[in-house]
Amino acid sequence: MSTLDSDFAGGLFDHCDPPCLSLYQPTHRHHPENQQDPIRFGNLVKALEESLRQQFPTDHIQPLLEPFQSLAEDRDFWNHTLDGLAVLGARGLFRVYTL
Q1: Residue 39 belongs to some domain of the structure
Q2: What is the pTM of this model?
């Protein structure tokens, strides 16, 4: 499993084509608090989409948003989070880091 430190040190993000996307969110380890985490993340994705629509055509942003939207719907993932989440994406790049 890659870590944020190793990916940055390895230069993974040095040559990303804009737009480069990032979402950060505190998360919860246990039920019932963690039930709100995917809802909050989905709201962040919607806000990200609204922001992107102001600058880019839909056909450019939809491929960027698809992995974010899939993550929002991944119930198994949301049942195993830690204390925070960093999600980074760009064309051809999508990384999820539990913090």
Answers
A1: yes
A2: 0.89
- For the stretch 8-50, pLDDT in tens is 667 777 778 889 999 999 999 999 999 999 999 999 999 999 9
pLDDT digits over 77-99, tens only? 999 999 999 999 999 999 999 99
Task: Report CA-CA distances (Å) from 49 to 24, 36, 56.
Answer: 15, 20, 10
The answer to whether 34 touches 76, Cβ cutoff 8 Å, is: no
Residue 36 lies in a domain: yes
Asked if residue 8 belongs to a domain, the reply is no
What's the gap between Cα 58 and its chain centre?
A: 19
Total domains present in the chain: 1
Q: Which residue range is the domain that position 73 belongs to?
A: 27-98
